Every structure is written in structure tokens, then in C-alpha cells.
Amino acid sequence: MAMDELMSRALAALGEDGAPSVEVIHALADLDASTEPMTIAEAAAHLDVSPHTLRYYERAGLVEVGRDSAGHRVYDDAAIRRLVFLTRMRLSGMPMRDLQHYVALVDAGKQTEPERLDILLEHRDTIRRRIRELTLSLAATEYKIATYGGAAGPDVHVADTRR
Amino acid sequence: MAMDELMSRALAALGEDGAPSVEVIHALADLDASTEPMTIAEAAAHLDVSPHTLRYYERAGLVEVGRDSAGHRVYDDAAIRRLVFLTRMRLSGMPMRDLQHYVALVDAGKQTEPERLDILLEHRDTIRRRIRELTLSLAATEYKIATYGGAAGPDVHVADTRR
DNA sequence: CCTTGCCTTCGAGCGTGCTCAAAGGCCTAG
DNA sequence: CTAGGCCTTTGAGCACGCTCGAAGGCAAGG
User: Fold this and answer.
1) Per-residue pLDDT, B148
2) Three-class DSSP labels, B56-88
3) How far is CA A140 from the centre of its chain?
4) Which nucleotide is nearest to A98 (CA to C1')?
5) A93 CA, D14 C1': separation in Å?
6) Residue A79: which of A32, A117, A35, A27 has the closest Cα?
7) Contacts of residue B86 in chain A, CB cutoff 8 Å?
8) Residue A12 in this model has a pLDDT that exceeds 90
9) What percentage of chain B exceeds 70 in pLDDT?
């Protein structure tokens, strides 16, 4: 059930522009995975961030990355999976602070799972709120577009999307 | 037609938590308006931003605001309407830069309407993209919540079902 | 009169999240 | 041997959007 919902959400999310849904489902469910170790450039490309950013995340203590004989970073499966999670959370607006807290909990062991779950639940609510805000702004923008030229000033006057 | 769509969107947006839909519809339609002039504190409360922010927007050239005999700002109807627009655009992620450009166009006169429309269309697309991103992140987060405890690390890696 | 409180201007400071520069190492191709 | 290219570390710098502090004005209440 969870899986079906996940997929339908993914499809719904990307439906409009007929985008790479296969890719998306794969990325979401990422079951096979087991990627080969990567260089920083490869990992950056894979995660769609810059190498700078990956080093920054490491410095921030979000992920540990091994080194090869030349001292170069080696991104293994575990690192990549964690970074996939991290970048998704970042993309959805979770602050670095919270991510640092979260990974600290992960590193502290299994007994912190309830607290981690709380963090996720709260973040879920945050995302939902944000989507609602954006949906209202979208409606307002579309309304203004539809009625363009009708208004005197740059306003449409839609409601305050209060919490 | 545009109005119906607007309303149904607003309802859809707030439906989930049974929120103040009446308030929202009223505010959405808010055609009457004609608020009395406000002090900066009142305007700030009305717009849900700080007085500091309102002064900042004024300094940034986003809005002109009159003064009373004591030199205090007076937010009239036109100012409030513009600020409602501005704060909504900000809330939906439009950069200050773009807003400055937009109001410059507004002040430049009617012949800039096509360009203003372009800006709105582009912003609409930006909001839609963002909603899609957030929807995906939401799905991933909900999935992780649903399967919590199954994973070793902070990632969505699930046991190998199908495929 | 004087305190209280909200307002003014102007410039500076801050929090967030990168982003980059400098100085240098390793490796491979020519 | 050397040049190119990608990597390393460290610390600094930047863009954005506020947010605040200092110094002072005006007006009402005690």
C-alpha cells in the first residue's frame, strides 16, 4: 500500500509535463541501488549538487566519506544513500541544523528512532504547509494572469495563507 | 470561470485540515476592500510581516508610502494592495530583484503589460515546479515515516520487494 | 514637566547556505 | 620532463532577505 501510494504520488507530481517518471520512481524507491563507489565529481552529478557542496556537507558533519590512496574522496553506497536523503531534505527546506541533529541521532543508535520519527513527522507537516501556501499563491497568480489588465495596480488580493 | 477555478483551488488547498475556508473565500474575492489608512504597525499585522520589513520594502523601491503630519507612514488602500501582492509573491519565492523589476514596469505604464504578464507566467511555472518538487519530497518523507525502523541509516532504502 | 511609547532615518549586522580562492598533491598523456 | 586536469585543505567571501541599533521626534497621560 505504501508503495502504491508512493508511485501514484510520484506520477501525479510529474504527470503534467510528461516528465521522466520512470527515473523518478526509481530514484524514490531506489531499491536496487548498490552503486559502485564514486568520485566527488560523479557523486555531485548524481546528486545534482556541486562538489563544493558535498565537501561542505562533509565538513558540516552530515556524512563521512572515505579516501583512496591519493587522498581523494570515495563515495560508497552508504554515503550516497545518506546524501540522497540529505539532499532531498534540503530540497524540501529542512535546515542544515535539523539535518545535523538528525544524523547525530542516527549515529547515536537505535534508541533515538522515536525522536528521529518525530523530526520526520514535523518535517512532513512543514512540507504540507508549504505546499498549501504555494497552492494559494499559485491560484492568486493564475487569477491575476487570467484577469490581466483588469486591475489597476499590481494586486490580486487573495487571502493571507495563514498557517 | 477563472473565479470558480480559483475558489476550488483555494478550497482544495485548505480542505485537508478543515481550515477557515469562509475567511479564505472572502479574502480571495475581497473585491470590496477599501480599507482605511493604516499605521505601519497595523499594516504589518495585516500583512503578517514586521514593520522593519515594510520599511525595507519601501527603501527597496517596491512601494511608495505617504506620511502624516508627524512624519509617520500612512498605508492607504493602494499601498496595502500592492503590499499584499508583494508579500504573496515573496511568500511564493519570487526574489526581490524580480519584484523591483515588476514594479518598475508597473510604474512605467500600460505598455509594459505584456512583459509583466511574462513575468507572472514564468513565476507561475516556478511555483508549479516547486510544488512538484515538494510533492515528491513529501512522498519520500511519508514513505520513510511509514517504513520507519526498517532502515539502518537515514535513507529510504527499503527491503528488496519486487523486480 | 516628564515619562512612555511608537514612530523616524541611516547604516550596520546577521543567519543561512553555499561558493570560491589559494596553494599544493597525484597521475597520466605527450 | 612537463603540462593538464582533477583532487586536497583551509579560510574567506558572497547573495539574499531581512533585522537591529543608535539617536532622536512627536504626542498623550499622569
Assistant:
1) 82
2) HHHHCCCCCCEECCCCCEEECHHHHHHHHHHHH
3) 26
4) C16
5) 21
6) A35
7) 154
8) no
9) 69
